[in-house]
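Re: the request from the purification team.
They wanted to know what the chain is likely to look like in 3D before they choose a buffer screen. I agreed to run a prediction and write the result into the notebook, where they can find it.
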Amino acid sequence: MVDLYLDRTDVAIRVGALPDSSLPPRKIGETRSCIVASPSYPGRRGTPRTPEDLAAHNCLGFNFRPPG
């Protein structure tokens, strides 16, 4: 993640919570996430009932946090 002020950035789009900053954010939209599976997956592995159940499933996910 870059420092928008120090890098003299004119425009940036970030997804997620904004850390404390003196730069004024403006909300331009919302996104939603959904969990999907192939038609045969629940029959083989069961259907998760809670978000915590996903820890025991084969999932692909996205992590937008900066490395560090």
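For the purification team: Residues 29-61 form one domain.
Please add any questions underneath this entry.
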